[in-house]
Design brief:
about 475 residues, alpha+beta, six-stranded mixed β-sheet
């Protein structure tokens, strides 16, 4: 239900809240929910001057429905900071996640074919080969960082799907440049007032964006020279640009490829790492999953349809995404004067909605902090109650591919190994661009002997998830 007369903090009174939101959004949103209900307003932090834009923290299913079902009224602001006008950084951020209205609908339609169910199934041979290349590096009895390994897997797989050329080394180098760009953006966005001053994270971000944009345009030009274009995203965009009247410029191509890679790679890497961690920490569920895989998958690589029909694996991944959604919260900007949860909004006001908070609503999910894959065998939550891939017309374009990729990785790991978390490791969930393990996830590789066992761990993960 809408909150009556929600608190509105402006000027100096808002500083502490803005600081908490930027540096620890988990605790900030939890405190808002606990103390103020489902809506909270932060006004202009400057104690003088005009009203300025406000930030409305709107939590829960009702807010999700209002915001996600009206994408023209609540437009996305992009997942990276804006950057100066005319800068390469601002151009690169102008991909699919930033554009809206008719332009977004047109470009999304162009990019849909590589993410259709049939196309996604065709990626299985390549994806499984890349998974094995990573797994082949693991040595029985030796510890390693699972987050680093899932990052490598997701990076390689996203590079193939997006860029698709035979020069795999070049593809990986391009992906590494994109990853560096995202890391620099995360550091720069934590500054209250980012200025382009030599030696600052913001200045390094802008300089790196210049180089990344040059590399992307070189990649586009070289791909145009290929005798036959493939089915990767970049080839699809180049084909679209040939259509008369198309507005698919090289600037848009570069931005779409960069943003899609960032979105696909970062979210999948963290989701995979958390899911594998939860399997290792829940022996009973690990054993159930192991039995399901052994009973249904005898060949490698399997076909996509078989993998997609494993109910316990599907429920386990969905439960992991519920508890630790990669995009924990997101922001939208009002394009006109309107109202949300009883709060009047002016044009350019920003709305923050949170998958993390919605997924922990006890009225939707009983025992919300408990990891329980079996809850997915009963009544399913509504489309605005469970939003790991967003919702509405801007539902994640590659969600089917992401789910298949995660399922293939988990199946192969279960076939080849048994993993344990290194005892007494510090497992900290950190809210940067995605919900990621701040210190990695140290694990040890064992033979697939079925002797599943949890390990004692430290860190805030124990507050976020209650294991069996």
């Amino acid at each position: 239900m809408p909150t009556v007369n929600p608190p509105i903090l402006e000027g100096v009174r808002s500083w502490r809240w803005y600081w908490n939101y930027l540096n620890d959004p988990f605790n900030c949103l939890n405190r808002i929910s606990r103390d103020h209900g489902n809506v909270f307003v932060l006004g202009n932090p400057v104690p003088f001057g005009n009203r300025g834009r406000r930030h409305i923290m709107a939590l829960g299913e009702v807010a999700n429905r209002e915001v996600f079902s009206q994408p023209d009224l609540f437009k996305p602001g992009g997942q990276v900071i804006k950057g100066p006008k005319g800068s390469a950084h601002r151009r690169l951020r102008g991909g699919l996640l930033s554009i809206h209205r008719d332009l977004h609908r047109t470009h999304r339609r162009i990019m849909q074919p590589p993410f259709s169910k049939l196309s996604v199934a065709s990626y299985v041979p390549t994806v499984t080969r890349l998974i094995d290349q990573v797994c082949d590096r693991w040595v029985i009895g030796e510890p390693f960082d699972m987050y680093e390994e899932t990052t490598t897997m997701a990076n390689w797989i996203a590079g193939h799907v997006l860029f698709g050329h035979d020069d795999f080394e070049r593809s990986v180098q391009t992906c590494d440049l994109i990853n560096r760009w995202i890391d620099l953006d995360v550091k720069a966005r934590r500054l209250p007032l980012p200025f382009n001053i030599a030696g600052t994270p913001f200045a390094r971000l802008l300089r790196h964006a210049d180089g990344l944009e040059r590399v992307m345009h070189e990649l586009i030009n070289d791909k145009r020279k290929e005798e036959e274009l493939g089915k990767d995203i970049l080839s699809v965009l180049i084909q679209a640009a040939k259509v008369e009247g198309s507005d698919m410029s090289d600037t848009f191509m570069a931005a779409h490829a960069v943003i899609l890679h960032a979105a696909a790679f970062i979210t999948t890497a963290s989701s995979l790492a958390w899911t594998i961690y939860l399997i290792a920490q829940n022996p009973k569920f690990a054993a159930t999953l192991d039995e399901e895989i052994k009973a249904n998958i005898t060949n490698w690589p399997p076909d996509a349809e078989t993998v997609d029909k494993l109910p316990f694996l599907d429920g386990l991944i969905r439960e992991s995404l519920r508890l630790l959604p990669p995009v924990h919260h997101t922001m939208r900007t009002a394009t006109a004067d309107t109202e949300l949860l009883g709060v009047p909004l002016k044009i350019a006001d920003r709305v923050v909605v949170s998958a993390f908070m919605t997924h922990r609503d006890p009225s939707i999910f009983k025992n919300p902090t408990q990891f329980d894959p079996t809850r997915w065998f009963g009544e399913k939550p509504g489309p605005f109650q469970y939003i790991p891939f967003s919702a509405g017309p801007r539902l994640c374009l590659g969600y089917q591919f992401a789910m298949l990729e995660m399922k293939l990785v988990i199946v192969r790991i279960m076939q080849r190994f048994r993993l344990n978390v290194v005892a007494n490791s510090s497992i900290e969930a950190d809210c940067k661009l995605t919900l990621r393990p701040a210190n990695g996830i140290p694990m040890v590789v064992n033979k697939p002997d079925g002797a599943f066992a949890a390990s004692p761990v430290r860190g805030n993960i124990n507050e976020f998830v209650k294991n069996e």
